[in-house]
Specification:
Radius of gyration of chain A: 21 Å
CATH class of the largest domain in chain A: Alpha Beta
Mean pLDDT of chain A: 95
Oligomer: heterodimer
CATH class of chain B: Alpha Beta
Strand content of chain B: 15-25%
Number of domains of chain A: 2
CATH superfamily of chain B: P-loop containing nucleotide triphosphate hydrolases
Number of helices of chain B: 8
Distance between the termini of chain A: 51 Å
Radius of gyration of chain B: 17 Å
Largest sheet of chain B: 8 strands, parallel
Structural class of chain A: alpha/beta
Strand order of the largest sheet of chain A: 3-2-4-5-7-6-12
Number of strands of chain B: 8
Number of domains of chain B: 1
Helix content of chain A: 40-55%
CATH architecture of chain B: 3-Layer(aba) Sandwich
Number of strands of chain A: 14
Distance between the termini of chain B: 38 Å
């Protein structure tokens, strides 16, 4: 398909449709409104259903229903709206229902602002909702990458029967870039024998029950064990990371999403000044690519690592866990939605070099 | 008597870019008032370029509280000043699609007072945008926009572009789109927009391909003031 000039939100919505998503339930919030807006226009054209729910809580529970019936379903929101959805996300994870959730992060805590932010890292990666569960979390750095990721997000959700989150920021959502949408014509939907599609007494198919309530301790244990056995497989198979210029680097920058893109520009500035810096960019925030991070930072050539984020120190915790003390890991971050410039990041590395 | 330009079109079709350029150009010749009538999208509005407009001497009328990072979907009472007797040019930059165009419908009684030769209602098209990319969907959007705006479109604008990757090829695609739409609706093509470089290429391409003048209209050079490349974004945020 020829390149189109698309806003991130529109591109995500279209890519989801191309990936087979036919159901969208959401509630408006800036800066992701263009996703439901686009879905409301496009889904009826492809025989799907768009529904603006009365609240985020209702929307996420509609996702539970559609996903439970075996449909490819998506919802999207932005930070405060994602907070409202957390109970439903925990329930969906417990009921083992595949779905895709997009979070276009904005400034927080509270209502925060409508600028881009990365403040929901902990929420996405460490739980957000209650109980022992995980989300697969993808963190794209450009509109094109987000678009390319949508198919995978839906496929992986179906494969592992788990909710998947696309954790982007307002910048990805609102920026307009030329993108190429690839229509996947050889996609074969996965059979979902577990889906609740109706029960016929005396029929061949047993009654499908999707549930998250397990009163007996043993039953709940069994569920959590099953989930964590699956998470172990996900950790084995689904980690994604980009290592840029890391080999033999003196300094390693660690960042995800749009900030990683700024880091690349900082690396070019440092190169001009004769400093070799590299970037480790986790593309999946969970499962976290700990080995790749460790390997890049533990190299003999590396003096220090620097984590850059638009939050007050969240990603840095996982980076430090991965690095496990073999090298110092410094932190550079600003909450309140201020994205550091390439010059500022380069200056910080030069400062570390002088110290 | 003032000249009135109303810019309608799909969301992200380049209305604000054209509005800003027209305002800056018109201000060189006389009084110019630019009205930001977008109450749909809090980002990317002409009001963001207050600095450019101030420098050019354009009077800007924005929705109350716009650019204050909050969304109050209301219109300034100062919009009515545009319909008072005066000289120069008034440009209305309307929100995208039929959803954004609703805002201008309420000024119908005022527009009815303007003689037809003074009122130019332009419909901006970019075939590389997803929603109104082909003649059928562009026509459907045009009809919807006409309905809610309560205005008759007097000219089509070819604004074929792909952001920073724009080439004359995109204007050529736009040519085909506006030509088909013009033939179907009888609405003339007002012009084709692009940077100086792209227009120059398009000119030779038009000659080579024997494109019809009437579907090219005027070649309207624009300077990129609105579109945010990645770098601009990083400096200015959302």
């Amino acid at each position: 398909m020829a390149k189109k000039l698309m806003k991130g939100c529109e591109a995500i919505a279209e890519a989801a449709i191309q990936a087979g998503c036919r159901y969208f339930f959401g509630y408006p919030i800036t800066p992701q409104n263009d996703i439901p807006e686009y879905m409301s226009l496009r889904l009826p054209q492809v025989g799907g259903c768009f529904l603006q729910a009365e609240s985020e809580l209702a929307a996420i529970n509609m996702v539970y229903g559609a996903g439970g019936a075996g449909a490819r379903v998506m919802t999207s929101s932005s930070s405060p709206g994602i907070s409202l959805k957390q109970e439903g996300i925990s329930t969906i994870a417990a009921a083992e229902i595949p779905c895709v959730i997009v979070n276009m992060m904005r400034g927080g805590p509270g209502l925060g602002n409508i600028q881009a932010s990365q403040g929901d890292y902990f929420q996405a990666v460490k739980g957000g909702g209650h109980g022992d569960y995980r989300l697969i979390v993808y963190a794209p750095a450009s509109i094109q990458e987000t678009v390319d990721m949508m198919q995978k997000a839906f496929d992986v959700a179906d494969e592992y029967r788990t909710p998947v989150m696309i954790l982007a920021d307002g910048l990805i959502g609102q920026m307009m870039e030329p993108v190429e949408l690839k229509t996947n014509t050889d996609y074969v939907p996965l059979a979902k024998p577990w889906a609740a599609t109706g029960y016929k007494p005396g029929g061949e198919k047993p009654r499908a029950v999707l549930n998250s309530l397990y009163i007996e301790t043993e039953d709940l244990d069994e569920l959590v064990d099953r989930l964590f056995a699956r998470y172990a497989v996900i950790e084995q198979n689904e980690k994604m990371v980009e290592c840029y210029n890391t080999e033999g680097a003196e300094y390693i920058l660690c960042a995800y999403g749009t900030v990683a893109r700024v880091c690349k520009a900082a690396i070019r500035i440092l190169e001009e000044q004769g400093v070799k810096a590299g970037l480790v960019r986790p593309i999946t925030l969970w499962p976290f690519p700990s080995e790749a991070v460790h390997e890049a930072v533990a190299q003999a050539s590396v003096k220090e690592a620097l984590t850059v984020e638009v939050s007050a120190g969240q990603l840095v915790e996982d980076i430090r866990l991965a690095v496990n003390g073999v090298k110092p890991v410094q932190f550079m971050g600003k909450a309140g939605s201020r994205i550091p410039s390439a010059e500022e990041i380069a200056a910080r590395i030069l400062e570390m070099r002088r110290a | 008597m003032r000249d009135y330009y109303v810019l309608l079109g799909g969301f992200g079709s380049g209305k604000s870019e054209l509005a800003l350029n027209m305002a800056v150009n018109q201000a060189r010749e006389g009084q110019c008032m630019l009205i930001d009538l977008d109450v749909v999208n809090p980002y990317f509005r002409t009001s963001e370029r207050q600095d450019v407009l101030d420098k050019a001497g354009v009077e800007l009328i924005s929705p109350p509280y716009s650019m204050k990072k909050i969304e109050i979907m209301s219109l300034s009472p100062r919009v009515y000043a545009a319909f008072a007797p005066g000289e120069g040019t008034v440009i209305f930059d309307v929100g995208g699609d039929h959803i954004g165009a609703v805002a201008i419908g309420q000024y119908n009684p005022n527009f009815n007072q303007i003689p037809p030769e003074k009122l130019h209602v332009l419909f901006v098209l970019n075939p590389r945008r997803p929603v109104a990319a082909d003649p059928e969907s562009a026509w459907a959007l045009l009809e919807k926009v006409k309905g809610v705006s309560r205005l008759q479109v007097t000219g089509l604008v070819n604004n074929g572009n792909l952001g920073e990757e724009t080439q004359a090829q995109h204007l050529l695609e736009g040519y085909e789109l506006v030509k088909t739409l013009s033939e179907r609706t009888g609405i003339p093509v007002w012009g084709s927009c692009g940077t100086q470089t792209v227009l120059k290429e398009f000119k030779s391409l038009a000659k080579e391909k024997g494109l019809e003048e009437k579907y090219i209209g005027r070649m309207y050079p624009i300077e990129i003031l609105m579109h945010r490349s990645w770098e601009k974004f990083l400096k200015e945020g959302l």
